[in-house]
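REVIEWER CHECKLIST
Item 1: Sequence provided? yes
Item 2: Single chain? yes
Item 3: Sequence as submitted:
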Amino acid sequence: MLDPSSSEEESDEIVEEESKEVLAPATGARLSPSRTSESSGGLQPSSRSSSVRPSSPSPSVVSEKEKEELERLQKEEEERKRKLQLYVFVMRCIAYPFNAKQPTDMARRQQKISKQQLQTIKDRFQAFLNGETQIVADEAFINAVQSYFEVFLKSDRVSRMVQSGGCSANDSREVFKKHIEKRVRSLPEIDGLSKETVLSSWMAKFDAIYRGEEDPRKQQARMTASAASELILSKEQLYEMFQQILGIKKFEHQLLYNACQLDNPDEQAAQIRRELDGRLQMADQIAKERKFPKFVSKEMENMYIEELKSSVNLLMANLESMPVSKGGSEFKLQKLKRGHNTSIIDMGEENENQLSKSDVVLAFNLEVVIMEVQGLKSLAPNRIVYCTMEVEGGEKLQTDQAEASKPMWGTQGDFTTTHPLPAVKVKLFTESTGVLALEDKELGRVVLHPTPNSPKQPEFHKMAVSKNCPDHDLKIKLAVRMDKPQNMKHCGYLWVIGKNVWKRWKKRFFVLVQVSQYTFAMCSYREKKAEPQELLQLDGYTVDYTDPQPGLEGGRAFFNAVKEGDTVIFASDDEQDRILWVQAMYRATGQSHKPVPPTQVQKLNAKGGNVPQLDAPISQFYADRAQKHGMDEFISSNPCNFDHATLFEMLQRLTLDHRLNDSYSCLGWFSPGQVFVLDEYCARYGVRGCHRHLCYLGDLLERAENGAMVDPTLLHYSFAFCASHVHGNRPDGIGTVTVDEKERFEEIKERLRLLLENQITHFRYCFPFGRPEGALKATLSLLERGLMKDIVTPVPQEEVKAVIRKCLEKAALVNYTRLSEYAKIEGKKREMYEHPVFCLASQVMDLTIQNVGRLVTPAKKLEDTIHLAELVIEVLQQNEEHHAEAFAWWSDLMVEHAETFLSLFAVDMDAALEMQPPDTWDSFPLFQLLNDVLRSDYNLCNGQFHKHLQDLFAPLVVRYVDLMESSIAQSIHRGFERESWEPVKSLTSNLPNMNLPNMNLPKVPNLPVNLPQMPSFSAPSWMAAIYDADNGSGTSEDLFWKLDALQTFIRDLHWPEEEFAKHLEQRLKLMASDMIESCVKRTRIAFEVKLQKTSRSTDFRVPQSICTMFNVMVDAKSQSTKLCSMELGQEHQYHSKIDELIEETVKEMITLLVAKFVTILEGVLAKLSRYDEGTLFSSFLSFTVKAASKYVDVPKPGMDLADAYVTFVRHSQDVLRDKVNGEMYIERLFDQWYTSTMNVLCTWLTDRMDLQLHIYQLKTLIRIVKKTYRDFRLQGVLDSTLNSKTYETVRNRLTVEEATASVSEGGGLQGITMKDSDEEEDED
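Item 4: Structure as written out by the authors:
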């Protein structure tokens, strides 16, 4: 039978082609190595293969190159032969497994990302970011994708991961998922939209970008096709896989498959039995010759023999537990029950496991198909005929009825019998026409004795005709098919004679029966008998071909079964039958000697040996064809003669290479099918478990050292197995330990330690972004396991800690070195982008200047350092995000690693800061950048680097504050000297002009609005109000802004050391207090000077500068609360002190201003005093007015003076109310002004208590008092202040004077009265 995957015609064509290729060298053409290998046979060079090679010239002519070529060809040929032999063993493991199964619980591996796929993925994400896709996304998602693209996809660490074969599509998806989770959690809550919904939506968009324009169905179909290696494979798929692994050609597989009869389970089971028997003999030989491997202890030699026999015993038990009926290529690979049978080894001994006749049970299925009857002439055409069929001792079946003219049926009857030679009876009946007939009439019958070897096609059989039937030539066409039961291996007629059984030479019907995997019997049967007449148990017998025996007549082809003390001679009627019998019995006996048919021997010896043997079976044909192509030596070689440890090492290495190059990110894990074959090979051919895992570890370490990604869990499993074995813990029941295993284990252990330390040192590059998941944690666990001296005593934690600490110290240097190189490359790219001409010239000239550092300006150096600091922070954050969990047990070491990493950066940072000119402040962003990260990190806050950073910048901060204090103090002095006291409405238009004078000081920032990059002060919170109302002077506004900006800057530094931060705050508050105090005092002096220079008459108008000065006080008051107050309760002294000063100064300013107003009122009253009763001016004025009033209309006396004063009051009130921002101060001013006004009026009237007021005085005072009262009431002066006793006194006096005047003058007041009236309201 051919390989199921190929047809016989194809096989024949291939064989013909190969035969042509083999003959080709005869024409003189030189063979390639592959063709040479195809034509050679066996492990040893044969005469046929030697004829193929070209004749070698004399040694003197042969060049070294040709010698090397010949040696190379020989090595390739030897390697090919080894692979072919190995493939034969692998094929047998696949064809008939009885120890292992394909595991179904292995983790499914993910699809691997190749370099081309990574570039495609980058292009797809770049297209999305460029807006070239149809995927709709919001800004938050685009930012997340942008960050993922820059940080992950463009990372060189990811490229290395792809190159190592450890990057899967799932890895990239999980990194993005982890990347966006923090972003989504930080988004504000939206009603009706949960964060989980956003996450799932974003992941769906990510998948759409990742997939691109591909049809998901095509991708799924492609994945399904490539996922075969991860599934349970059929035998054909396993054959094909190992053809690829071992480089076996298809035609070679077909030849080996057919010649090894891999489709014949009986042959495979027999092969196993022969192998196990050979291993037992080998164990005995080792024990006899004392050729043991070198063990660590002498006592292990005897144990080694016991282990060999025990392992074979276990395999025999496994084989014995296999069901006998198992057969065909469709059986399932199943886990077998492992039994214990201590007597299996001694099965050949007599008196044990002897079979009885009742132990042999056969069951046959028969199919009897009746087609038609011929020769039925005596019956009328319309007569009904039918047939019956029965098997002796069974039920009887009947066909359908048919007319005698057409006796055709096609009816099938199924029977079951236990008789190897059953009697099948078929009878032909016709219906009786007689009335009294009780049964139908039998016309004829036929009795057949079918066997499983009988023809299955329908044939005509002559029937025995009954007495009353006139038709004597009846024939019936029928087919009898007798199935062969699974436990019957062969059957047929043989001549036989034996010593103990079958003592008479006679032809008998024999059946070779398999009772169990190790028990076979030759049974002779008689017809219609279920039990054998006699039987021979084949245990211990050897079958072989033999020559015809003289004196035995009957039978043409002889063979015998020989056992010590017994010989049984068999003979068949033809050669093909003999070959089939010998093959079947050869499988059953388990003998090591393989019988060779005499015809094959003759053919090998004859010159014309290619003449086909027509009487040979198909298996012999396949064997001949394999021999013709040089495969017979591989097939017939004894597995016990091979070093399977070396062969398996080769097989496992090639399988690992094949696995690492497939489309899965396997990380060194074999596929289920590969695990199954390797397990079966080890069990069947006795490969020691420790050797297997040591080889596996060596292969994995070699790949890992060359950059491949290997799962540390896999390394851990194999290492733990080997360690357990070497230390005598028997993980697989093997207690012997060879010296080679122990030495190799120590070597592997050291290699593993170096690899793990190297991986931990390069953890950012070996496990980028924490992928593969859990690998770094498993690496640390494996390192701890590898440091153990044995398998029981745990390694001290300090020792593990010391190793990891050393690795992380190296890791800090590695990470920083690579980061610095990356920053330099990035900086050069940036320069090329910014200065392409310069860079091109520099590349052409190659910058002959060696010391490039001389060309770097301090500003450029600082810029590069800040960029480097950003990268350093990014590395620390990635370590925390992706690797902190793995180092959870060693978190303190990760803190040390971070400090070491930062200390390396500190060297470059210190060098960059030393280059900066003195008294420049551009380095403050560097401090803020680093400090903001460090102070929020619990482990690094106030750590070694953090303190170094503080020590570095503390003098700079102090120096900056000193210079700022000096600068602000001088700005106050110079500013107030030339202060115009104009209100400031816009900072942007006025403040930039308030630059400091040119002083002989170091470079100090003037703090205008357009400040340099550092310090980057934020605008004060009160700045918005400046644009809506008048404020203080330019000097005061500049002062307050500078103080606030300075304090904001120092506060934004977030100085981590509490004591120094408190000192800075205290100093700035004290500075602000002193500066504001100076501002207040200077404003107070300027206020007094300004008032002294103003008019004392009613022409006085409150100048803008006076309001500005008040506003300065208001601003000082509001700013002092913020600039001078400390957060701690006991530190309110600066604030309270400056507040008291401001209050006192405002009080004095109000008093001065009110005094000014009172002076003006006193001037008005002085003018009214001229009209006092009894003065010369009063008499003269009265006389003149009386005289003139007779001739002309004299205007109302005194109203101009009153109106002027009222106008002055009202204007002053409006200006103060409009220009001064402090409502409280205005109300206090108005209260004091009103009270002082009434006091002055009351005093003036009191001085004239005995005098009657002049009519003009009365009218003026009435107008002033009423208007004053009304205006101040409108300005919000409280009634309690308005209606004071002084006001009541003045009001009462004026009311009395008014009454007196109205009686004496008679309407001389001209409507002016103290009474409230609507006319006055209208008049106002």
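Item 5: Key structural point noted by reviewer: DSSP finds 44 helices and 17 strands in the chain.
Item 6: Recommendation: ____
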